[in-house]
Design brief:
By secondary structure, the chain is mainly α. It is 73% helix and 1% strand. Belongs to the major facilitator superfamily. Feline leukemia virus subgroup C receptor (TC 2.A.1.28.1) family.
Length: 492
């Protein structure tokens, strides 16, 4: 048996990097106690990983803003375009519907072409859709504004599955969940802006020409921001670092591409019972959040007429609280690795928050709604990165983009069902019945989460390599090979 050892030094592209010492074992011979050992491969963390995460978050933010810019002032757009509430709801639900048939082609593209091409394509589509909408500030242009929203919805397919994949490609084992939660925060920040800004930019005025002017201003601002972000993505965004950040990523890179089958990967995921339980429970939770976000204006206006601006502020409260929840959950996961326990607790608290919101919405006190909506958002939105990271753990070494894509597909399906269902219930029986309708499905999701078997495969892959290497160093020491000799530095 021969042993060679190397320590990699230097930086990538001149950028400073955080380095970890690496030992490579080249094993030969027939020794049964060492032939199965995996090498501890070199890993490195680059400071530019934060730039990649920031750029993606900006792009995700601009796309999420497009989703809610109609729904939060639905009464104004209903009057402007002379359409009913269901047509306005479809301007949001088109995002859900588009995702379902396109998720598999886009996740295949993510696996075969990489993160950069998918992100560039998504930011380009988002930019095109925003510019289409700049010409629709006219009561006769509803069909064209729907086309613009449809193009933006295609960009969403290139967005929602990226956070866990990007985090795995660029971030270390002790920060991957935090990075994923920050990636999700970009989307949530866009939703927050979508709740806050449209009611401010588009006041509820009677003069149609003045209303058209305000709508046009909003559309041009969105188009300008989307264009700026697209240019940044094209110029700066990179696929992955030259040296992987974790042992699991190093092993994934060493796998042979001709051994990978996207279709076989999908089938393995569909046969993974813990993952499929998570797919359903994730869809139920996030589908409820989508329904609440889409119908929030209608629910608030029913009990507090004329409060369009406060409806937006309540939506902002939901998302800001959710952003805090997402970040705290990501940090907690990195420190504890308690994926199932944390997911279950947050799910139970989401159900409790939804019940409290349902019973207090009609009390006639807006400050109470702000508090209960904030609590609901903290847990319901905080659940998003938990679902992504738990899925990666349950499905490793399958592609993070594929597992996230299936989670989001489930969310879109339930989002359509819940938005239409709750909308019908709101029209017939009121907001209380509509919110209890969602509580029932959150209860089902809580029970399903409790049934998930916690098989943390990614953690096992990282730990296995490290433990095997420590065992090998111990064995070498017992044979008289000193640790300093084994770890002798050699510059390449």
């Amino acid at each position: 048996m021969s042993v060679q050892d190397h320590e990699w030094t230097g930086s990538f592209g001149g950028a400073p990097a955080e380095r970890t010492r690496s030992v490579f074992y080249l094993l030969s011979g027939d020794s049964s106690d060492t032939a199965h050992l995996l090498p501890l491969m070199e890993t490195k963390l680059y400071k530019r990983r934060w730039v990649m995460l920031f750029l993606f978050s900006l792009y995700s933010m601009s796309n999420a803003l497009m989703w809610l810019q109609y729904g939060i002032i639905s009464d104004i757009f209903m009057r402007f375009y002379d359409i009913d509430s269901l047509a306005i709801d479809w301007l949001s639900m088109i995002y859900f519907l588009t995702y379902i048939p396109l998720v598999l082609p886009v996740t295949w593209l993510l696996d075969s072409r990489g993160v950069r091409e998918v992100v560039v394509m998504g930011s380009a589509l988002n930019c095109v859709g925003a510019w289409i909408k700049t010409g629709t500030a006219d009561p006769s242009m509803f069909a064209m504004t729907f086309v613009g929203q449809f193009v933006c919805s295609i960009a969403t397919v290139c967005t929602l599955g990226i956070p866990s994949r990007l985090a795995s490609l660029w971030f270390g084992q002790q920060e991957v969940s935090t990075a994923c939660s920050i990636g999700v925060l970009g989307n949530q920040l866009g939703i927050a802006i979508g709740f806050l800004v449209p009611p401010i930019l588009v006041p509820n005025v009677d003069d149609m020409d003045e209303l058209a002017y305000h709508i046009r201003v909003m559309f041009y601002i969105c188009a300008g921001v989307s264009t700026f972000i697209f240019v940044l993505v094209v110029m700066v965004f990179q696929e992955r670092p030259e040296i992987p950040p974790t042992q699991s990523q190093a092993q994934a890179r060493n796998s042979h591409p001709d051994e990978y089958s996207y279709q076989a990967s999908i089938m393995r995921l569909l046969r993974n019972k813990p993952f499929m339980l998570l797919v359903i429970s994730y869809g139920l939770n996030v589908g409820c959040f989508y329904a609440i976000s889409t119908l929030l204006n209608r629910m608030i206006i029913e009990h507090y007429p004329g409060e369009e601006v406060n409806a937006g502020r309540i939506g902002l409260t939901i998302v800001i609280a959710g952003m805090a929840g997402s970040l705290l959950c990501g940090i907690w996961l990195d420190k504890t690795k308690t994926y199932k326990q944390t997911t279950l607790v947050v799910y139970v608290l989401s159900l409790a928050g939804m019940l409290v919101y349902a019973f207090t919405l009609n009390l006639g006190r807006l400050w109470v709604v702000f508090i209960t909506a904030g609590a609901l958002g903290f847990f319901m939105t905080g659940y998003l990165p938990l679902g992504f990271e738990f899925a990666v753990e349950l499905t490793f070494p399958e592609s993070e983009g594929t597992s996230s894509g299936l989670l989001n597909c489930s969310a879109q399906i339930f989002g359509i069902i819940f938005t239409i269902g709750q909308g019908k219930i709101l029209d017939k029986w009121g907001t209380f019945a509509g919110n209890i309708f969602l509580c029932v499905f959150l209860l089902i999701g809580t029970l399903l989460t409790g049934l998930i078997k916690s098989d943390l495969r990614r953690q096992k892959a990282n730990q296995q390599t490290e433990v095997q290497t420590v065992s090998k160093l111990t064995a070498d020491s017992e044979r008289g090979i000193s640790t300093p000799e084994v770890l002798k530095e050699r510059k390449l």
